[in-house]
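Researcher: We're teaching a course module on how sequence relates to structure. For the next exercise, students receive a sequence and then see the predicted structure as tokens, so they can try to spot secondary structure elements on their own. Here is the exercise chain.
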Amino acid sequence: MPSIVAFRRNHPNRWIILVINVAFGGTIIGWGVAMVWAMRAAHRVDSASSGGESGLNLFINDVRKIQVVDPPPLPQTSLSHELERLHDLLVRGAISRTEFDGLKAKLPGGAPSL
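Model: And here is the predicted structure for the students to work with:
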């Protein structure tokens, strides 16, 4: 019965339901699982789809539309704030003088140290 229901409803997982029904249909639990799965409503995006991307679609093909957007730009810091931050790292010993000079040179408008 679960296989018939799945095939009549054109369920995306009808072949898996058939296998479960044949293999475990003799047990009450196997038959119940197959029947519940066959009766569940399946959301199908288009009529040509036969399941998920793999075709297996163990769980209902419930696709949500999403919109991909660019992340917000990082906050712009002024040159003076960046220099203060680098100087603070130098004072705390987090970076060496050589690293400080290299990072300072990479800043826009920063002059390389001699």
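Model: If you want an answer key for the exercise: The chain has five helices and no strands. Residues 74-114 form one domain.
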